[in-house]
Design brief:
138 residues, mainly alpha, 72% helix
């Protein structure tokens, strides 16, 4: 049995042990932990395997969150459909930013992704449907 299989079995056993205590787990906190764990895994994948330092992950993460929140609150879509469309929107933004940044390497790749993610941040703060600095409320 290799280490990946052992890790998978360990995670399954941990989930099985935590199931009886689901009433005592703060679900919002658990969801935030899982979201940031996914964020860290994506960052580790890019930096660890390719050696490229990207500052664009926050732009993709935020874009998906804004699209999901907007579609669920304003358009009245179900959370599952809103999340799926948020992922598609973030993937499209990743394609756009990636097609511009992948031609660079080293510090230039980091600076291009930083500049483009700052543009996304500026748009998120300035556009009226995003709620500005307050975000999407409710």
């Amino acid at each position: 049995m290799n280490s990946k299989t052992k890790l998978l079995y360990g995670i399954l056993v941990l989930i099985a042990l935590l199931l009886p205590f689901q009433d005592f787990i703060y679900l919002v906190f658990a969801m935030k932990v899982l979201c940031f764990a996914l964020f860290a895994c994506a960052f580790n994948l890019l930096l660890g395997f390719t050696g490229l330092l990207s500052f664009g992950h926050a732009a993709f993460f935020g874009t998906s969150a804004y699209i999901t929140a907007y579609l669920c609150k304003e358009a009245g879509l179900s959370p599952e459909f809103g999340i799926a469309l948020g992922v598609l929107g973030s993937a499209f933004l990743g394609f756009l930013i990636g097609s511009l940044a992948i031609r660079r390497q080293g510090i230039y790749f980091a600076m291009v992704t930083l500049a483009l993610s700052q543009m996304v941040y500026f748009l998120a703060v300035q556009l009226p449907f995003t709620g500005g600095e307050d975000g999407i409320q409710g």
